[in-house]
Specification:
With 582 residues, chain A is α/β, with parallel strands linked by helices. Chain A has 3 domains: 130 residues, Orthogonal Bundle (Fumarate Reductase Iron-sulfur Protein, Chain B, domain 2), CATH 1.10.1060; 292 residues, no CATH class; 124 residues, Response regulator (Rossmann fold). Chain A starts with 7 loop residues before the first helix and ends with a helix. Chain B is mainly alpha-helical. Chain B has a single domain, classed as Fumarate Reductase Cytochrome B subunit (Up-down Bundle), CATH 1.20.950. Helices cover 72% and strands 0% of the residues of chain B. Chain B is globular. The chains are: A alpha/beta (582), B mainly alpha (230). Chains A and B meet through helix 2, helix 4, helix 14 and helix 16 of A and helix 3, helix 7, helix 8 and helix 10 of B.
Chain lengths: 582, 230
């Protein structure tokens, strides 16, 4: 039913509302009894006590009026009876814009305080979406939406800038870990266990968080990658109410993830990004979720639990408190995991009150940071948050959300609080005990320990004289070798075939089968022909006999007495040469 | 020709009452069909990490919210208001019970204990209703969001409670004149017809809105809510 004087845009909004009316939405539109219970749940109400228009039900009523006038029985027949006065002029729409974008951060605190289960935040988001679709939105929303559609991420970070940023972060990180190239960020690696996606704010303003995340992946020896595009896990569609844009942004992520054949999509610490990617994206795009997604907080907890990274909480001893992101806590039930992680990496954690589902918004949510025209009102509404933070006495406010980082930083600056903001990834990176992490342990296991040059080598010491045999065995064992001993020629041949040592030290003058015969037999057998043999003898005159033998020459030769250093160095060199030859 | 006296009027009132009840049931049925014509939203994402719950529990918890004032900050911090809500709605239930049972099987509501309990419950609700009317007029926030229907529904309910107390007093023998009871039945009939078109029909939607919000948030992992602690 169209009002004769209604503007085209206002008319269009009615048309656009119809497909958004699910049973859940209609239930919320019908359910409000105007009891006012939501009133004190809202930080705008608490800080603007003289302005009744801040009350959540008033904001939701703006959409309710359209619904009642055009879809509900009573409103269609008796509109005045239920205040079913929908917007008529473009000026009305401008007023609605200020209400929907400028007096609500869609934090959902009112939803959880409504006895009727009315989801006022969702109604406000729908109103935003209708306005956005007819071109009525704050300038900041317009700019960000344009960047999202045209460039593929909400901050307009160009592909080449993003890649360049990852490259210099990689260079710095490689330097940071002592030149290990494994620390470089892999881009577009196929079949990785983890595909890590970020908030464009990280690439543009805060690359430290990418660096810290990369350090943690390196420390955990993770098989991971970052996509060259489709890397923006945030989604301005959540804020603007534009489901089509929300679906498109989510599709970027999904398509790239599948192209890379990743096992697990990991979402960096961002409240609205987590909600959009993890919860709403599949709904907006009409796609059933068919792959694993998780917050990086969960990933980090897993690494600690599995012993892949080692952390020392005493490295973060400054008092910290935790701010629950609205989207994480109220819309995703994600509030215990960050606390679990925080308790593992910080030694003085103090709860903020209220917390979890009942925490107050940072006041930068719902896209508020991009709407500068509402900044004075936003900062005034932040007094509640400032009081909460100040009461903790903490010096660091930790949060798992980039929006909250910006919002809280503004609050701290405006209210002159003596603290700063950090994210969990920063604290985890700061608490790392790198030398005890998986990557270092693996490298250590793969190469001999410094000072033990024969670590992992098996050596057969053949000598009939006890003193000489014990001396050689002891020196080589102290150098890390595993020793097998033989006291005569037959035993030497038997053990060589059975134990397959890396090297044999062979005495020449022995009773029974002497060293020359043993040497010939070893060289003559296919099983032992290639074995490294170092002759160690007190009879240099026999050297000629050995070298005259029609067989592969010995790999080394030493005269008794031999110093421990020469013995170890000689054996080590023989084995190194053999390794290189292989 | 029989003269129309109080008994004749009572007969008419009772007939109107049952007719109104039938209309209400019919309109409610149509209302629910209308509500269910809208498409159901569907969660396509997997349940939330660790706490996500696809069972009925979050939805049932959400529906039971009305009896758990401690789970919502708005009720936990405002227990007097919550208690007034309880008294008000018990009064509504008592009033409906009084009208229906009083029409169908009057001897039951004439049992002194029953009569006095009903009178107290409806009387308490009347007091709360007076307070609510004053509150709605006095608070700027409520004036801003209130519609004519909000005022009308509340004031007429207050009057209905008042008439209900008088009808109970008549039933208890404290007041003389069948007119109190007749007036109560007519007032109830009016409500039975008016309610499906007014905000008072919120109780029809309550189970559905609470079920849906509980199911949606439960799937994500945020229902039941995490009350502040630590």
């Amino acid at each position: 039913m169209a009002d004769r004087n209604r503007s085209y845009k206002a008319d269009k909004m009615v048309e656009l509302l119809a497909p958004k009316l699910t049973r859940q939405v209609v239930g919320s539109l019908l359910g409000c009894v105007h009891c006012g219970m939501c009133n004190e749940a809202c930080h705008y109400v608490l800080t603007h006590p003289d302005d009744p228009k801040m009350t959540p039900s008033y904001k939701a009523d703006q959409l309710r009026k359209i619904f009642k006038r055009h879809f509900d029985w009573t409103g269609r027949v008796f509109p005045r009876w239920v205040n079913a006065y929908p917007p008529v002029t473009d000026e009305d729409l401008e007023e609605l814009k200020d209400i929907a974008f400028g007096t609500c951060t869609n934090c959902r605190r009112c939803t959880f305080n409504c006895p009727m289960g009315v989801d006022t935040a969702t109604l406000n988001r729908i109103m935003r979406g209708l306005l956005t679709r007819v071109g009525v939105m704050p300038e900041g929303v317009r700019v960000v939406s344009k960047d999202t559609w045209e460039i593929g991420n909400q901050m307009g970070v160009l592909d080449e800038d993003y890649i360049e940023t990852l490259e210099w972060i990689s260079e710095e990180l490689v330097d940071q870990v002592g030149g290990d190239e494994q620390a470089a960020i892999p881009v577009d690696k196929l079949d990785a266990e983890v595909v890590y996606t970020i908030n464009p704010r990280e690439a543009k303003y805060d690359p430290r968080t990418i660096n810290n995340a990369a350090l943690i992946f390196y420390a955990a020896d993770e098989n991971w990658t970052m996509p060259s595009w489709g890397w923006d896990q945030t989604n301005f569609g959540l804020f603007s109410g534009d489901d089509a844009m929300g679906a498109a942004s989510w599709k970027h992520l999904e398509e790239k993830f599948k192209e890379l054949r990743g096992k697990r999509l990991v979402i960096s610490e961002c409240g609205h990004g987590y909600r959009s990617t993890r919860c709403e994206g599949p709904n907006w795009s009409g796609t059933d979720q068919d792959f694993v997604m998780e917050s990086s907080v969960v990933t980090m907890i897993r690494y600690i639990r599995e012993g892949r990274i080692k952390v020392d909480k005493s490295k973060n001893s400054i008092p910290v408190t935790f701010h629950d992101s609205c989207n994480n806590a109220r819309s995703c039930g994600f509030y215990e995991e960050p606390r679990e992680l925080l308790n593992l990496v910080a030694s003085d954690f103090r709860e903020m009150h209220p917390n979890r589902t009942e925490n107050y918004c940072c006041t930068g949510g719902g896209g508020a940071m991009s709407m500068s025209e509402y900044t004075p009102r936003r900062l005034k509404s932040a007094r509640v948050k400032a009081d909460q933070i100040a009461a903790t006495g903490a010096k660091i406010v930790v949060t798992s959300c980039h929006n909250c980082v910006d919002g809280l930083t503004d609050v701290i600056r405006h209210y002159k609080l003596d603290c700063k903001v950090a994210q969990l990834v920063d604290l985890v990176a700061g608490a790392l005990v790198l030398e005890e992490c998986a990557v270092i342990r693996k490298k250590a296991a793969a190469k001999p320990e410094p000072g033990l040059p024969l670590q992992g080598r098996k050596i057969l010491v053949v000598d009939d004289e006890d003193d000489a045999r014990v001396f050689i065995s002891t020196v080589l064992a102290d150098a890390g070798a595993t020793i097998i001993e033989a006291t005569d020629g037959d035993q030497a041949i038997e053990l060589a075939g059975k134990e397959k040592p890396d090297l044999i030290t062979l005495d020449i003058s022995m009773p029974g089968k002497d060293g020359v015969e043993v040497f010939r037999e070893l060289r003559g057998s296919p099983d032992t022909a290639a074995m490294s043999i170092c002759v160690v003898t007190g009879h240099p005159e026999f050297r000629e006999v050995i070298y005259a033998a029609h067989a592969e020459k010995p790999d080394g030769y030493m005269n008794k007495p031999v110093s421990p250093e020469d013995l170890v160095t000689g054996v080590h060199r023989i084995l190194e040469l053999r390794d290189k030859k292989e | 020709m029989e003269q129309a006296g109080p008994s004749g009027l009572l007969h008419v009132a009772e007939a109107v009452h049952w007719t109104a009840l039938t209309i209400m049931v019919l309109v409610y049925t149509i209302r629910l069909f209308w509500l269910f014509r809208f498409k159901a939203g569907r969660d396509r994402q997997r349940p939330g990490e660790r706490y996500g719950d696809t069972s009925l529990y979050p939805a049932l918890y959400s529906m039971a919210n009305v009896g758990m004032p401690w789970v919502m900050e708005s009720t936990r911090k405002n227990i007097p208001f919550y208690l007034s809500f309880v008294v008000f709605h018990i009064g509504v239930a008592a009033g409906i019970f009084f009208a229906i049972v009083g029409s169908a099987y009057r001897p039951f509501v004439e049992i002194p204990v029953v009569t006095y309990v009903l009178m107290v419950l409806i009387g308490a609700a009347f007091v709360v209703a007076v307070g609510r009317v004053i509150r709605r007029f006095a608070r700027p926030v409520l004036r801003l969001i209130s519609t004519p229907d909000d005022y009308f529904s509340l004031i007429t309910l207050m009057i209905w409670f008042g008439v209900g107390v008088a009808a109970a007093a008549y039933t208890a023998g404290l007041l003389k004149g069948e007119g109190y009871w007749v007036a109560y039945l007519f007032a109830t009939s009016f409500f039975l017809i008016y309610v499906p078109f007014s905000k008072i029909s919120h109780y029809l939607y309550y189970p559905f809105t609470r079920y849906w919000i509980g199911r949606t948030l439960g799937h994500r992992g945020s229902m039941p809510p995490a009350i502040a602690r630590g």
